[in-house]
User: Fold these one by one.
Assistant:
Number 1:
Amino acid sequence: MSRRLADVEVGAELPEQTSRVTRADLVRYAGASGDFNVIHWNERVAREVGLPDVIAHGMLTAGIAVRAVTRWAGDPGAVVDYQVRFSRPVVVPDDGSGAELTVRGRVAAVGEDGRVRVDLTVTSNGDKVLSLARAVVALS
Amino acid sequence: MALDAGLVGRSYPPSAVYEVGREKIAEFAAALGDPDPVYLDPAAARAAGHPDVIAPPTFAIVLSLGAGNVVVEDPDVAIDYSRVVHGEQRFTHHRPIGAGDRLVATATIDAVRTVAGNDMLTTRVDLATEDGEPVCTTRSMLVARGGA
């Protein structure tokens, strides 16, 4: 069921979402998305271009983050706009447990047209990895 | 080498039709670790008011990556892809993408900027049905970090 607009208030916090991203997740996302950039699976090449290790696809991080919004809204089809700015890579070590991702969200604005803006804060091991992550959902 | 501001507005021929399949949506949702039934179960999707399973909000990246290749391959776009990172991404959905959609992608260069030696290229991809119904607009900003 979709969340009702009448039940949404500015300042409301979304349930915190935590998950882990492992090397296996990167391989799976590469196949599903068609993004086979080597820095997402090859440690040697990642280091050659100056990265500390293999990093997650930015769009994997963004896709995981917006789950917090779709779950809260009750219908993924309600998301009418989603934008992210990548500020820091999510480094995924080859240690079996990978990187931790924490997503927090807050209702930033509620429009009379039923459009609700949710601002997300996405961190990995305490570092903010998206400097902007903002979704707009259309509720009624 | 700075990007030529005259590239702004350059549009490329539309892609071939991409038919969105239930299995591809399920594969993409699984890769995001998202078991929402509207991505997987046509009956659940219909109960939520959709004609068939719908795709996650970031699924359009699959089509926009492919469509963006025409920009990458344009010899006039002098950007060093060995130093490129994904800077920003935006999706504007006119309606959810769903299984059975037959979509055409059209890429346009929206903006070029050079800031502190970094070249930034924003490509817009308009996704529409083959009949011309607008479905989604994606905007991807790539940054080529300035070299020595």
Number 2:
Amino acid sequence: MAGSQRVYRARVKSTQSLKKIFRAMELIAASRIGRARAAAARQRPYAAALTRAVGLAAAHVGGEIRHPLLVERANVKRVALLVLAADRGMAGAYTANVLREAEAHAAELAEDGFEVDRYVVGRRALGYYDFRGVPVKRSWLGSSDSPTFPLAKDIATTLLAAFTAPASAPSAVGQLHVVYTHFRNMVSQAPRMVRMLPLELVADEADPAADPAADPAADPAADPEAVTVVRERATGQTAKAEVFPLYSFEPSPLGVLDALLPRYVRSRILDFLLQAAASELANRQRAMHTATDNAEELVRKYTRLANQARQADITQEISEIVSGADALAAGR
Amino acid sequence: MAALELRVEIADWQGEVWSGQASFFTAPSVEGPIGIYPRHEPLLAILRAGEVKVAPSPPGPDVKVRVTGGFLSVDSDIVTVIADEAELAASVK
């Protein structure tokens, strides 16, 4: 019948225009990945210099460093969970994967008796929590695929404030965990959980300087606390002073550390954001590529069905004419 | 023997802002402005918002970079400024 033919033609047409949209979105995502990766690469020297400086300062402070950002707060049974997801869908299972990882981790934390404060980047993740009535402490929306330094700064400031808030404050947290999507390469990205705060100074993170070996001779002008730390250390061992050049610090090793650590956190968060953005775009590109392929297949299928319907119409018309002519001939 | 020079690199999160050889360098540290000549002792200093000034070598007009804070490291005549945000002042290059 002519009806089904028309329906199929209409479907072919709409699928074709959808295909064009998918294709355009694939291309947009592809071009933006380049930009996101370049931004991540540009940020790297900054992060490397920062990491090195933190290592140096830590080495010069020496001994057990009792900086607030390095100490776990045993008296605060609340953990901040920063979830980095997407603002828009159309990226396959990207947001779903991140959320699954985040919620699995949150469940673990809850089992260990921690309260979880959720901080969220990305409209999709916020929608997920809102729909389930899960409270979200704070959310940042609108730039999940092109994060900027001010955004990272804002996030870091908020979370550092929560981490350094007095234990009695309602927003105080004892740890900060981040769930983001690690960008390994163009085809492989995986959600990952990182414990961000309290910071741990790990030796292999930058250079040997990150190892908190003491340099007792450093900076006589350090503030009182730093001096005692250095002295404690100096009585224990003295031989390790040669590992680093003798830096001087302005205002003091601890003061420098004090200024550097928040910056370090900020730069890590920016790095997470940039990786998440690149992952989101890679996922979107892949999803849109699949969608384009599927649309193509549908177009083929509907075209075939439409042709079939047309053929059936023609056959029917012919048989109607023939049988009509037969009837006329028989009636004569 | 190379002449006494500093190698200066100024970068923020978006990448390098300026780099080159210099004969003298000043920056606004939290404890007051500091000037650095070649063969300065290794130093790690926190910067506050202000203007970093570089006297390039070979001599030319001063390079001025506005920073919003950050830090500065000096080691074997390599000066690295890692700014939170840095902006090259107009009229340079």
